[in-house]
Every structure is written in C-alpha cells, then in structure tokens.
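INSTRUCTION: Work out how this chain folds

Token vocabulary: learned, describes local backbone geometry

RECORD BEGINS BELOW THIS LINE
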Amino acid sequence: MLRAGRDADAAGFIALIRDCWAEYPGCVFDLDAELPELRALASYFAEQNGALWVAEVAGAVVGMAAVHPLPGTPDWEICRVYVAASQRGTGLAVALMEAAESHARAAGAEVIRLWSDTRFTRAHTFYAKLGYVRQGPIRVLNDLSNSLEFPFIKPARGVAVQALDASAAEHAERPLADILIACVAAGASVSFLPPLSAEAAQGFWRRSLEDMVLGKKAIWVAWTDGELVGTVTLDLAMPPNQPHRAEVAKLLVHPEARRRGVGQALMTALEAGAAQRGRRLLTLDTRADDAGEALYRGLGWQEAGRIPGFALNADGSASATVFFYKQIGGA
C-alpha cells in the first residue's frame, strides 16, 4: 500500500537507500556530505512542486519514488526509486512507477525522464519493460561514488515517435523483441513464422541495433500514452551506385495498439528522417491485402508490381507480395 511520503520517514528512507547502494561495489553513502535532503525529503520535493511516495511493510519503509517538474520545460523527472530486496518481483516497483507517472501526466507532463547509475543494470531492464528507452549522453556526477548515469525517457501521452540513438542499442532489444513476437503471433508477414521465440526475436534486434550504431540502419519507435507499441526501420546500406535510396523494413505495431494512427506516425517520421539523410527514393514490400497495403497507398506510395506466392503464411499457404516506392525530398 502506497502513501504520501513524509519528512518523518527520514530514517526509513536513509536505511533503504543505504541498503540498496550497498549491493553495488563503489557506491558510497555519505548522508552529510551528499544527501542531507533525506532528513526532510517530503519538504524537499514539495519545494520543487513534486511528490513523494512510500511503501511500508510492518512499519518499515520498503519502497519509495518521487517525481518533479523540470523547470522551464514540459518534462517531469522520476527519481529516488528504490525497493528493498525482499520486495522485488512483487509488483511494488511497478506500483511506485505508475503512481509517479500518473501524477506527472495529470500535471501536464509531455515527456517523463529519469537517470540511473550505470551500475544499476537490473533497474535498466525494469525501465525498459515499462517503455523507457535510453537516449542521450551519459551524465558524470563527480560525487564520492564516481557515478555515471544513463538517461532514460518516454513520452507521457498520446501517440509519439522518436528516432533511437546509439545509446539506446544496449537496452532497446527486449521491448522491441516483445513487439515483434506479438506481431508475428497475430499473423504479420515480416519474414518470421509463429511461434517466434524470444531468443530469435532478441537476436534479430541485437543485429539491427548493432547496424544502427554503425550507421547502416535508422530505427524509430512509437508510444501510445507512455507504452512502447511500435517501430519501423530504414535500411541505409545501399550499393555504391544507389546512395540516393533506402529500404523500409519492419513496420510493426503491437496488435493491441492498432487503429490509433501509430503506423502513420511512424512512417511520417521515417520519411522525414530519410529526407534529412539525403535519401530521395524509398522502397518497401508488404503482403497483398494486409492492412499495411492500405496504409502505404493512403500515404502516397506507388505500387511497382506484385509477385504471386512470394511468401508463405503460418498455415503453409502462399501469398502475393506487393512492392511499393515513393519519391521524397523534392525528387
């Protein structure tokens, strides 16, 4: 059960954070030198127009989280998320994050941000499950623990699309794999047949993200109300005599998030990104009569032709594939 944090919870906050930091070599907890605000943490966040939550078991503090607006921006930051080792895997961490996110959305947040120590790898996996992607450069704190922190973000509301950068490669693999597995299970024709294993899906995205880091691909992801639900890839590795074009691949929208404009938003972002990279001709293919065919036609893509029986379905039947192209960037 969560409740609002109070200054009187200081001893519990101090013990919880000290215990969590003790799990990681090199994390130095010095209350007076670096964390004096823990003695009156509720007041500290109230002064920032933020909020603080605490979870108790038998009178002991076993979890906490806080959120506050970032001055001069429409963004909010979640921080001080800690859960006692005995309570991990119980859903408490999810409840704390949901409380903080809901508060930020109600206050008008457009983007929710957080920072996490590079040593807290378990937390990074947890944030990825909640739809956060690592984005941007590492922050150096110059503190007693010699802390380096990764930035994580996710849009707070509506349909939002963002291109991944190289920093996302390490942590985007699993959530993208989950989307791919769900789409293949729903019958999507994207080079795989169901059932698609997590190992195969994660392997595919591991290779794709490595190509992104090398500049061979660009990858966009989409959220709906803070949930990561879609992605599209632009293959930039063209032959030497075709530097003006690129191929669209793996437009994926989770089956539960379809008919909300996610696919259109992803394609619009991709086309703009392709134009910025000097690509004037885009190509793609899709199974005939799939929803994607109508989407591409509606976005102005031109049919170049079709090949009967090009790909097999899960039941072994063959389907035609339609090939499309689109000229962009004033070509």
About this structure: The chain has a mean pLDDT of 96. The domain at 1-113 is CATH 3.40.630.30 (Aminopeptidase). The CA atoms of residues 114 and 243 lie 38 Å apart.
